[in-house]
Amino acid sequence: MKKPHDRRAGGATGRKAERHEGKARPQAAPQRVQARTPRPPEPEAGPRLSAAEKGEEARAARPPLRYPEGPLPALSMPVILTVEPTEEYALIDSGNGEKLERYGSLTLRRPENQAIWRPRLASRAWDGADAAFTGDTDEEGMGRWRFAAGDLTETWPMTQDGLPYWGRFTSFRHVGVFPEQAAHWRFVTDVIGRAGRPVRLLNLFGYTGVASLLAARAGAEVTHVDASRKAIGWARENQTQAGLDDRPIRWICEDAVRYAEREARRGSTYDIILLDPPKFGRGPKGEVWQLFEDLPYLLSLMRTLMSANPLALVLTAYSIRASFYSLAALMADHCRGLGGRIESGELVIREAGEEPRLLSTSLYSRWVAAE
């Protein structure tokens, strides 16, 4: 804080001035004025960088990619991982760019770009949904929910493999969980259970924490990273809802690439790594993520973060114009010398009822250690 100007300097001392008989009254010493150094002009603000320019600037500052040497892991493709209907979740029907789902006892109607076929069920089954999303049909489009009964709350309880957590109606049509990921979650919890040793797991782009909580319940020490403070807060609520407050989970709000870079400098390692990156995203400090441009660098960091005896590296990619063969080739580049195998394919959900179809939701590639 700037101190107030001292008005006493060069002025009266507060005592009466002495009178001098027969002598001239002494004059006060002249006040010294300290010359001020002129403040340099403020630099002119340059043009604001676009997201693409920010991304290019960040990538230019990175070290060149280093690829490991050694033989490629065995490749297994295509491997289709299918989620079947259960009491906790079921895909009731799909078609005409929409899907009708059941989460517990609630039925939801949402946009689905992959559903280019016609629905199997009559319109009354769709019109009777408890909640329907209206608005932009893009993956990250804004909109609102319309409720049939009008008395549904924003947050509602759900379960995944017996794990309680909170669902939420968001303006981006999502509800806090991607049910097709259940295939990966069960794979990871099985790996943790068979490991016979302590397991450290890193979950990047962790969203609302269901994967992290299932892994922690299975016995892993979990580090969960997401760039959204809102998502981290939601994940903490899910931890309490699941009764897992005593489990070793670190909730970190940070850009995934920045966190991975710092962990690599620290020499940290993990036995299992989950990657569920978006096509495009922003970090809490304005960092820009673009999948095709940034994924190779992130995977090179993941190889650095893998422990001496790693168990799995799982990558899922949504809403991209690519092939699982592309993901497999990229994964193989960064997993040379590890042995094991790489599985790559699609995550799909099987409809409930007669003549069910398979709804493709995302591409994936995962490296699995040899047993």
UniProtKB/TrEMBL annotation:
Residue ranges, annotated region (Disordered): 1-72
Biased region (Basic and acidic residues) positions are: 15-24, 51-60
Q: Which residues form the S-adenosylmethionine-dependent methyltransferase domain?
A: 147-284
Q: Which Gene3D superfamilies match?
A: Golgi alpha-mannosidase II, Vaccinia Virus protein VP39
Q: Which UniProt keywords apply?
A: Methyltransferase, S-adenosyl-L-methionine, Transferase
Ranges annotated as biased composition (Low complexity): 25-37
> In its UniProt entry, what is this protein called?
23S rRNA (Cytosine1962-C5)-methyltransferase
Which organism is the protein's source?
A: Aureimonas altamirensis DSM 21988
- Print the organism lineage: Bacteria, Pseudomonadati, Pseudomonadota, Alphaproteobacteria, Hyphomicrobiales
